[in-house]
Amino acid sequence: MSSLVISRTLRATPRSLQRIGRRNASHGGPHYNEPSGYIFGEKPLPPGQKRVKEPWERIWFWGMYGSMAVGAVLLYYKPDTSIQSWALKEAKARMEARGEKTDYP
C-alpha cells in the first residue's frame, strides 16, 4: 500500500511543477505600454491649438510650488537655535555682569 502511495506521489510531482512554472501569476502574461516617442504619451498639437489641461494639473501646480514658497519663508524666518549663538550671548552677558569689555578694538 505504501509503495503505491509513493509511486503516485512521484508521478504527480513533475506535472504539478510544470503547472506552477507556466502559470504567469494568474494573468494573461506579460504586457506593457509600448513607447510612443512622445513625452507623456501626448502627440504634439497642430500649430495654433492650445493644450487642454486636466483638472488635477492646476491643483498639483499650486500645491507643489505653493508649499515650496511657504517652506522657504518659514526657513528664512526660523529662529536661531544653534549652540554657538547661545554660547556667544551667554558669554557676553557674563562678561558684562563682571564689568569686562565685550567689544575688542
From TrEMBL:
Residues 19-45 are annotated as: Disordered. GO terms for cellular component: mitochondrial inner membrane. It comes from the Eukaryota. Its main location: mitochondrion. It is found in: Mitochondrion inner membrane. Pfam families: ESSS (PF10183). InterPro entries: NADH_UbQ_OxRdtase_ESSS_su (IPR019329). It is a single-pass membrane protein. Keywords: Electron transport, Membrane, Mitochondrion, Mitochondrion inner membrane, Respiratory chain, Transit peptide, Transmembrane, Transmembrane helix, Transport. PANTHER family: ESSS SUBUNIT OF NADH:UBIQUINONE OXIDOREDUCTASE (COMPLEX I) PROTEIN. Complex I is composed of 45 different subunits. Interacts with BCAP31. Belongs to the complex I NDUFB11 subunit family. Accessory subunit of the mitochondrial membrane respiratory chain NADH dehydrogenase (Complex I), that is believed not to be involved in catalysis. Complex I functions in the transfer of electrons from NADH to the respiratory chain. The immediate electron acceptor for the enzyme is believed to be ubiquinone. This is NADH dehydrogenase [ubiquinone] 1 beta subcomplex subunit 11, mitochondrial. It comes from Cristinia sonorae. The lineage of its organism: Eukaryota, Fungi, Dikarya, Basidiomycota, Agaricomycotina.
